[in-house]
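Support request, please re-run this one:
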Amino acid sequence: MAPVWAFAAGLNNGQELKLYAGAAPAAKGEAPEDVPALRAYMPKGGKGTGAAVVVCPGGGYHGLAAHEGEPVARWLADNGIAAFVLRYRLGPKYHHPVELGDAQRAIRYVRSHGKDWGLDGRVGILGFSAGGHLASSAATHFDDGKPDADDPVERVSCRPDLQILIYPVITFTGPEAHKGSRKNLLGDNPDPALVDLLSNEKQVTSRTPPAFIVGSTQDTVVPVANCDMYAAALKAAGVPCEYLRGAYGQHGFGLKDFWSEPCTQWLRGQKF
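Re-run finished. Output below.
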């Protein structure tokens, strides 16, 4: 059984946490959409497992779906996991590497400040649709921290301890690619090398964290082949993966018992 951690005072449910003290790198304004931030949801009763998950709503890299944010964070918090919904910057105003940088910063931020909130440094990432692409990008493009950075947050690893991907965009190549997400993230005529770099089924290594994946064979927006390719790549690399694949309905179904209950069990198995 995972240890129970008492949470420190000073972090309220729904509290917004800006990822940077000043303007974010490459910021093009000061409106909320220019300011990457987290919204915190803590376990009830002030106690939890000590682990945290960053939640990335979907929206085609053009919006942030509300039903893939707060309800998901509250489900995690109800199960003892501190949850932080990420407001990341979006296209077409912002392109790669801004979005990935926001996700990496979110992981570093939660990990570096965790002791202040009674957390133990374990941080996972969960994403839906294009947010699933962002989560899988964070899981396949990371570093162990930048020891010489002036900002102490940047000295902390941005590798997530696990990844949860719900009907994710994974690939930017071939007929399975979600062209809208690719365009919003990379622009109209991206370098083919960048397209390959952000086709995350091609970036899996043995250091990629364990995954829980949900894909629907009835999804006509993001083909289930995205999940199939990623799950196969994880298996080939020896990375543990639990993959729920079935006729679950159309894209965008959000938080549902058919996957959240097995995912809760999987998280327990991951000592989260």
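Residues 98-113 form the longest helix (16 residues). The first strand starts at residue 5 and ends at 6.
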